[in-house]
Specification:
This protein has 99 residues and is mainly beta. The chain is globular and about 45 Å long.
């Protein structure tokens, strides 16, 4: 949107699931967001235009995974997940080849 609040663009309006807590990557090419699908919270990387073909799920599973933070160079990020029965912090490598 413009600085005056005009020309807003909803980049998740085509997504029927809840999306929350966006985090810009250091290079500005990706937004990490938490999405609630299939009774679990997971992390989804989207491009600033919101196009579905550019979305990259970090993990789809029955466990909850929340985004924590990008590394300063943007090559990895931290998530918090209960995938092993208790809540732990995991470092994920950012392997993205498009956009």
């Amino acid at each position: 949107m413009n600085a005056d609040g005009s020309d807003q663009t909803n980049i998740t309006n085509d997504d029927p699931w809840a999306n929350d807590d966006p985090h810009w990557s250091p290079d500005g090419k990706w937004i990490a967001t938490e999405t609630h699908r299939d009774d679990a919270w997971n992390v989804l990387l989207i491009t600033p235009d919101g196009k579905e073909e550019n979305q990259r799920p970090v993990d789809w599973n029955q466990f909850n995974t929340w985004f924590d933070s990008w590394s300063p160079d943007g090559k990895s990020f931290l998530v918090d997940s209960n995938r092993q029965g208790d809540y732990d912090i995991y470092r994920c490598a950012r392997i993205i080849t498009s956009s």
